[in-house]
Amino acid sequence: MGFAFLPIGIGSLVGGRFGGRVMHHFGEVTTSPSGPGGDFRRGVLTALLLWIYDRVIKPGKAVTG
Question: With contact defined as beta carbons under 8 Å apart, do 38 and 32 qualify?
């Protein structure tokens, strides 16, 4: 029982520091080149690509006969 939460503690320490640095770099230092509506456009593009995948690329059920 004494070592059961050791991986969680190590992950919390490492992940907290690493996540903070990544969040600072990509959230505050780097600016988005796509402008203020970029997140919305990326969401719509992702939904469109998933819809195309569902209708065109995704394999259907095998026909047995």
Answer: yes
By the 8 A CB rule, do 43 and 49 touch?
A: no
Pair 6, 12: CB distance under 8 Å: no
Determine contact, residues 18/11, Cβ cutoff 8 Å.
no
Tokens 């600072």 belong to which residue? 24
Alpha-carbon span 17 to 27, nearest angstrom: 15
User: What integer is the mean pLDDT of 43-49?
Assistant: 92
The reported pTM is 0.40
